Structures are given as C-alpha cells and as structure tokens.
Amino acid sequence: MLRAIETLDYAIGAATQTQESVTLQAQEPATILIVDDDPISRLITRHTLMHTDYKLLEAANGEEALKLYREYAPDLLLLDALMPGMDGFEVCAQLRAQNYSTPVLMITRLEDEASVER
To answer: Which domains does the chain have, with CATH numbers?
Structure first.
C-alpha cells in the first residue's frame, strides 16, 4: 500500500503541474475519487490515505463515480475494475469518450494479460 501511495503522489504531481513554470499560490489539496463496490476495500483505502493532505471522495459504483467526477473534477481516480453494473473499464471508456484526462489507477485482482492491457 505504501508503494501505491508513492504512485499516487507521482500521479497527482504529474496531473497538477504544467510543463511551464509552476506559480506559487495557495493550492487546495488534490482530490482523489475512490471507487469500489466493496465497502471494506473503500474503508481500507480511505484509512490508508486519511493522514495525507488529499481530499477523499467515495463512490460505491460506476454510475455514482461518473456523477461525482462531473461534480468535483478529481485529480485522480482509484478505480475498482470489477463492479456489478458499470465496471471500472466502462467508467474509463466513458471518461475517455468525453476527453477527460484525469489519471486512473485501476485496482484489481485480475492478472490475465488481456485485462491488464484494457
């Protein structure tokens, strides 16, 4: 999980900085949207990140994730790949179709190459 947090720091930093000079200003903390149908997984992720400066949002399914995404424009999505109804792959496809470029970290137990490549 610590390696995942380091990855989050890198992804958020890349998402929030431009290649031009970064101006010094009071910035709001980066927002992470945690999307998982398993409440225990969301709890563990939230607990792992609660001592950071990130603003955390949670969604229990893909439809709720898209609604929160449009409302809050998070800086990063932690997205479960396998959920009932709209899964994480479909959430990503819908975001891409709307030209959103927010980094997504897929959280999954899938190991087959086809799933990883999606």
So the answer is: 28-117 (3.40.50.2300)
